[in-house]
Amino acid sequence: MDFELRRAREKLEREQKERKENARLKLERERKFKQEAIRQREAIEAAQRASRLDAAEAEFKANQKNEENLIAGRGIVFCRVLEAIPYQGSGDKIKLPSSCFTELSEQGAFEKGPLHFYLSAIHQNVNRVDETPMTNRTTHAGVLEFTADEGFTQLPPHIWSNLFPDEYHPMTPTVEVRYVWLPKGTFARLQPNEPGFSDIPNHKAVLETSLRQHATLSEGDVLTVSHGVLTYHLRVLELKPSSSVSVLDTDIEVDVMGADLTADGTSQPILIPLTLGKPEDGAVEEGKYIYYKFSIDDATWVGVSSGDAEIEVKIDSKTQDGDTDLYISRHPLLFPTQHQHRWSSHDIGSKSLVLGSQGLGIGAYTVGVFGFKGTTKYQLSVTVQNKLKPMLGQQTSFVETDTVECRNCKHYIPSRSVALHEAYCVRHNIVCQYANCGIVLRRGEAENHIHCGKCGQAFQKEEIEKHMKVFHEPLDCPCGVVLEKEKMVQHQSFECHFRLITCRFCGDMVQAGNSAAVDARDRLRGLTEHESLCGCRTAPCDSCGRAVMLKDMDIHQIAVHQKG
Prior knowledge:
The protein is 28% helix and 32% strand. The chain is of the alpha+beta class. The chain has six domains: 1-72; 79-124 and 134-180, Beta Barrel (Barwin-like endoglucanases); 187-256, Vcp-like ATPase, Chain A, domain 2 (Roll), CATH 3.10.330.10; 277-329 and 345-386, Jelly Rolls, CATH 2.60.120; 403-472, no CATH class; 497-561, no CATH class. The longest helix has 71 residues, at 2-72. The radius of gyration is 41 Å and the shape is elongated.
């Protein structure tokens, strides 16, 4: 009996203990559920608060940006995000969709003057060579026309290269285009990335010609300036009165600094200064050019023009296995070549050119050393040589009048010794029988004396190979003409419509073109098609201030101000 009571009591205690434990666990679960519900409610409330704050901040930023756009656009708000595609053009003028024209015209943007836009690259899905983060690049531009497809903007190379450098390869280049008002520029400081830009004759006029194709300038941009076949890149270091300016209808002072020698190397040729009378050592590889420049000042030109002096350009070869060619040009032709030059020498080994007064003048000249064969070390010098004149009262040498012509060499020999001379001459000398040659050669030298089968010039055997390659190898002109060297030089200097000429109005090197000026009066003046258009620009007359076309300025000075 006691055993059963004890078992019943233990069972009751065990059940009570289990009920208490279950009640405790239930309370614990309810407490956890309440805490989790509180946490979830707090998280939801925090997310809602953050969302409201983000929305308020976004609204504030949007309002702030609209206010900035309103201020930057002087009351005009225009901002588009467009996909960028390149097009081949010059300057900094972009193409926009026609809907942009409608939006801008509705706000009266065209009544406020030229349109300027702030461009910011939005880099999405960018493939970059290194892993460093990239900041959005910005620049400014004008507008060329509103003919782009909807959702796209077309960028010229200048804008594209400044927004998307070579080291960045965006999968989908996107640009934010925003209308802004820009002040007119008063000052710009530029620095070329390559040396030699200041060697261009009237390089500021060339820069002015390039800037005519631009509507804006921004600090940090790289400006591309072309001069003939040469291309220079100038970085914009400083602008006034602001970091971005308009260059339309304004007189801007430009300061061109020295080249940035720390920039990446370039294959652009440079001019090495030469001092008259001071030799310069150098070396040139086969097929390449090394260029030097020298100048003729007033004092030197007085001696040369009077015939008392002459300019000698001499190159002494220091390498037996190598050979060079020598080309000289007068500026504005900066870099003479085999096809374009004023003077040349193709002698084997050392060579010299004596320049008289014909074709010379005060100014700068370029000497081009071309590596014809192998790597050649040389010494180049430009000197002023004084001509020797006979002194007053100097006796002349005695010339015997009783002479007889030698039947072999055709020289006139004194009659008393002609028999002895002819016997010696026939035994040791040979006269070249080539037409119009008649040169007298020693019998041992005659076998090395040959004539070119095309032009008839006389050479040594070792010289004929170079002569044939330089003068008689057919050359292709870009215009399609195939000529030999001498005719090619003449063709590319005076006939080829791809030849480069210097515009008398802008100073730039431009193609001559295959047609003369359209206007009959311009043709009578000898103006090319480019000069006819370039001369239509106006400039104020120095005497009366009246705006006169550049091509009519000389007539205006004569007709109105009697200046001739």
